[in-house]
Amino acid sequence: MPELNYQIKAELNTTPSAAETWSDLGVMMKNISQALNEVLYQATYLSDEGWGSSEVTGGQYMVTFTGDKKVGDPVSDYIFSDAVQYAFGEARKTQLRLTRGTKTITWEVTLANITDAGGDANQPNAVTLVIHGNGKPTFGTVV
After folding, report:
1. Domain 5-141 carries which CATH code?
2. CA 124 → CA 2, 56, 74, distances in Å?
3. Cross-strand pairs, 52
4. Which of 72, 74, 40, 43 has its CA nearest to residue 57?
């Protein structure tokens, strides 16, 4: 059975400067795209007669969400607050938690490319958010 995207629970800490408040990104987001932005070391050795080799030496987790702005939703209100959307540095840092079945992955993250995109007059305000992982994630299980 394939994993369906709605089976991935994505939560954002919407109170990073206080006690954690995990709010569900799934209330406003409709699409999730995950990637490891991998760092490669590439080399061509004389003995390989011109053929190259690659090693993955690092990476950074990145996830892109698209959805609808929902005034009153904790995630939407947090991301699109003046204190986050129009600020930089520490104001854009929080934590992301993904739950898949009984496994969880939690990252320190930076919110980037916050796009309050708009759209047709009779449609919801389409939004985009790219989340960049900062450092190694923490792996856990749901009890």
Report:
1. 2.40.30
2. 30, 41, 17
3. 44
4. 40
The residue written with tokens 């759209």 in the block is 119
* pLDDT single digits (tens) 54-81: 999 999 999 999 999 999 999 999 999 9
User: What is d(CA 109, CA 95) in angstroms, rounded to the nearest whole number?
Assistant: 5
DSSP three-state, residue 72: coil
**pTM recorded for the entire structure:** 0.87
- CB neighbours of 32 closer than 8 A, spacing ≥ 6? 5, 8, 10, 63, 64, 65
> What is the rounded CA–CA span in Å between residue 16 and residue 31?
24
| Residue indicated by tokens 């109170």 | 15
69: which DSSP letter?
-
- Confidence (pLDDT) at 143: 75
Closest CA to 117 of 66, 63, 64: 66
Domains of the chain: which residue ranges? 5-141
